[in-house]
Design goal:
heterodimer, A: about 550 residues, Aspartate Aminotransferase, domain 2, Aspartate Aminotransferase, domain 1, three-stranded antiparallel beta sheet, globular, B: about 90 residues, mainly alpha, about 0% strand, Aminotrans_V_dom (chain A), EC 2.8.1.7 (chain A), iron (chain A)
């Protein structure tokens, strides 16, 4: 795997190398994100996994011990002396027997543990209360400032969910007994709660497994349904990866997609959007609140334009529902994706809003028993859905209180950092922003070292979906942020449960770490002396 | 039952119970939130004079107290071994 940084800048083939007009055209029709790395597009032929291809290889029989999690019981060593090479089926059978023997023997020495206990805590530290994970030791659980990645489940939501795990565990589609009836009643009550927060009719709300699935159904489902007449999709370059990946999938199928650029403050130009809409445009998809930079797009205006032009308007409102007021009628929204775990609800559930008047038709992505009116087959997970409904109801009640408090906390954070540091840039517009999201870039500081020093604060740089790769975030690239500033960007997420003390501690830690790094940085020394870095003639050694 | 107007003593007792239950949460963030929300909730409703709205607010408060009691137990049973960094006393 090639490290992005190891490739010299002159060799990086990028859109920046093209002439400006070509570059814009290139970026307007090319998906800003690379394909998701999980599975290749065509799965066959797939290489056999190790345990089937070489079940008795020395590497598998005598593995080197893991330094962080050394095994309590040494593995079973099995030497098979066979003159003939074992055929495939026999090898598989033998491997299965080895595995079973391996599992049984330790079980006789140790009590059986549940999957939950096995997956939960890291191995207990020797002396005091230290957490050691991935080579990092901290004295306590970090303070959580990553509310855009996920939010803790509100205790009131958990209270609503628990009965449906304990005693009311029926399948809501069972029509013949009390368990089914009460589950169905709970699901319908949750549907009304979700519909109330967006100003919709309960019949327009469909439960899915999350905002990613809702986005997939919205983008791919709508375009597949109208594939004869509509061949064009308009979206922005700062959308969530699931929307962009769905658009790439559509491009591979032969549809055309326009990826609109955004201005420096992250907002999309509404006139350019209006120009980009063609007679064969089937869908316009613009997210309401960006998860990385927190910018709030002008949804009402975009909705008005789409209504005038007669185009369906989809918005990914995963970060917006419950935080800013959303009304699907006032904003002329045709489809909307909602996520449960961004509004203090459980993970694994989301909702899709599909307008009924005029009716929005989609081709279902999940085929099955026709649940959720055929739009999304599959048993509706009652506890998760009840949790999501409770979270939506709470969000409606607490929106004013939370917004006031979170805005005050954001000001405290920003003022605290900018009062003691210079060279701090806020990525994205400050006025059109959801106050719980603050994305800061610190000049003359290396991003990864900054994050390594902030181990007591749980923050993120780039969105959770892209943090595995070393590429700078595509959203910041779309904003026109330079690469070095993009690498030092940190996203602070403030939420309902954040306290003033946590904000003060985060400010303290960030400022200390940035000052420490800048102290060591020769670039910063030069800047302080007044040398302009951009115009330096570097000597050739 | 929800139509009964609470007396001043009952309201104060509810407030104290809420604060005491909030203090029993093992999670730092939830504990602070419960305490803060109870105080702000009572402060916000201080000017209520209409008897039906006072009674409704009181019964709402009682149900929130029940929820808080149950959840304090659940959180304490599943409390993580290590506390939050904010609670660890630094030298």
């Amino acid at each position: 795997m090639l490290l992005w940084r190891s490739v010299p800048s002159w060799a990086r083939l990028s859109a920046n190398a093209l002439a400006p007009t070509n570059q814009q055209q290139h970026r307007a029709t090319t998906c800003p994100v690379s394909p998701s790395p999980c599975w290749p597009a065509h799965p066959f032929p797939r290489a056999l996994p190790d345990r089937l291809a070489a079940p008795l290889s020395p590497r598998r029989l005598f593995p080197s011990p893991n330094p962080i999690y050394p095994r309590a019981n040494p593995p079973l060593r099995l030497l098979v002396l066979s003159p003939l090479p074992l055929p495939m089926a026999a090898a598989k059978h033998l491997a299965a027997r080895v595995l079973r023997a391996h599992l049984l023997l330790p079980a006789l020495r140790r009590p059986l543990s549940t999957a939950a206990a096995a997956a939960a805590e890291p191995p207990p530290a020797a002396a005091d209360d230290l957490v050691t994970m991935k080579g990092v030791r901290i004295s306590g659980r970090p303070l959580y400032l990553d509310m855009q990645a996920t939010t803790p489940v509100d205790p009131r939501v958990l209270d609503a969910m628990l009965p449906f795990y304990l005693s009311r565990y029926g399948n809501p589609h069972s029509r013949t007994h009390l368990y089914g009836w009460e589950s169905e009643a709970a699901v319908e009550a949750a549907r009304e709660q979700v519909a109330a927060i967006i100003g919709a009719n309960p019949k327009e709300v469909f439960f899915t497994s999350g905002a990613t699935e809702s986005n997939n159904v919205s983008v791919k489902g709508v375009m597949h349904f109208y594939r004869d007449k509509k061949r064009h999709v308009v979206t922005t370059q700062t959308e969530h990866k699931c929307v962009l990946d769905s658009c790439r999938h559509l491009q591979q199928e032969g549809f055309e997609v326009t990826y609109l650029p955004v201005r420096k403050d992250g907002l999309v130009d509404v006139d350019r959007l209006a120009d980009a809409i063609r007679p064969d445009t089937g869908l316009v998809s613009v997210m309401a609140v960006n998860n990385e930079i927190g910018v709030v797009q002008p949804i009402a205006e975009i909705g008005r334009i789409c209504k005038e032009k007669g185009v369906l308007f989809h918005t990914d409102a995963a970060q917006a529902v419950g935080k800013i007021p959303i009304d699907v009628d006032k904003m002329n929204i045709g489809l909307m994706s909602i996520s449960g775990h961004k509004i203090y609800g459980p993970k694994g559930v989301g909702a899709l809003y599909l307008r009924r008047r005029p009716r929005v038709r989609v081709e279902p992505q999940m085929s099955g028993g026709g649940q959720e009116r055929g739009v999304r087959s599959g048993t509706v997970p009652t506890p998760l859905v009840v949790g999501m409904g409770a979270a939506c109801e709470l969000a409606m009640k607490e929106m004013e209180y939370d917004t006031k408090r979170i805005t005050a906390l954001q000001e405290r954070l920003l003022n605290g950092v900018t009062a003691r540091l210079d060279g701090v840039v806020v990525n994205g517009s400050i006025e059109h922003r959801y106050s719980g999201n603050l994305n800061l870039s610190f000049a003359y500081v290396e991003g990864e070292s900054l994050l390594m020093g902030l181990k007591e604060v749980a923050v993120s740089s780039g969105s959770a979906c892209t943090s595995a790769s070393l590429e700078p975030s595509y959203v910041l690239r779309a904003l026109g942020v330079e690469e070095d500033m993009a690498h030092t960007s940190i996203r602070f997420g403030i939420g309902r449960f954040t306290t003033e003390a946590e904000i003060d501690r985060a400010v303290e830690l960030t400022v200390k770490q940035v000052e420490k790094l800048r102290e060591m940085s020769p670039l910063y020394e030069m800047v302080k002396e007044g040398i302009d870095i951009k115009n330096i003639q570097w000597a050739q050694h | 039952m929800s139509g009964a107007v609470p007396s001043r003593a009952e309201v104060l007792s509810l407030f104290r119970s809420l604060l005491r239950t909030a203090a029993r949460f093992t999670d730092y963030n939830i504990r602070e939130y419960a305490r803060r929300r109870a105080i702000d909730g009572f402060r916000q409703r201080r000017g209520l004079s209409d008897p039906s709205s006072v009674a409704a607010a009181f019964s709402d408060g009682k149900s929130q107290l029940e929820i808080a009691r149950r959840q304090a137990v659940v959180y304490s049973v599943y409390a993580p071994r290590v506390k939050s960094v904010m609670e660890v006393k630094t030298v």
